[in-house]
Amino acid sequence: MPTPTIAVFPHPSGVYYAHLVDPNAGINIVAPTPFDTNGLAVEQVATRLRKVRGNEDAVVRPFRTADKWINHVRHEGHLDAITEAFPHPAPREGTDHDAAS
User: Fold this and answer.
1) By the 8 A CB rule, do 63 and 8 touch?
2) pLDDT tens digits, residue range 39-85?
């Protein structure tokens, strides 16, 4: 039986986000945590999440940057999680067709 995983990463909004994947329960969700990125290191947040009742068997992985988490999620095939965490990506330079010429 696959083990549930929780990835923790700093979000540009200023709080840490957690990405929970539990294949047994059919869960794949991203949500903000109550932890501010200025107050704690990502490893400290991961430790706190490990201590939450129900997370004892989960693998908790801290990612120091959102980009590292995105690369991990792409590799795992959970592309919908990226859209969930970043619903309105900024247009890349040169791709904003509404910009004045």
Assistant:
1) yes
2) 999 999 999 999 999 898 899 999 999 999 999 999 999 999 999 99
Question: What's the CA gap between 100 and 56, in Å, rounded?
Answer: 54
Give the span between the Cα atoms of 94 and 32, in whole angstroms: 31
The whole-angstrom separation of Cα 3 and Cα 22 is 7
Give the model confidence (pLDDT) of 1-50 as tens digits.
Answer: 789 999 999 999 999 999 999 999 999 999 999 999 999 999 999 999 99
**Single-letter residue type at 91:** P
Reading across the β-sheet that carries 27-36, which strands appear in turn? 27-36, 15-22, 5-10, 59-62
How far apart are the C-alpha atoms of 84 and 96, rounded to whole Å? 22
The answer to whether 42 touches 62, Cβ cutoff 8 Å, is yes
Residue 96 phi, psi (nearest 5): -85, 100
> b/e for 16-25, b at 16 or more Cβ within 10 A?
bbbbbbbeee
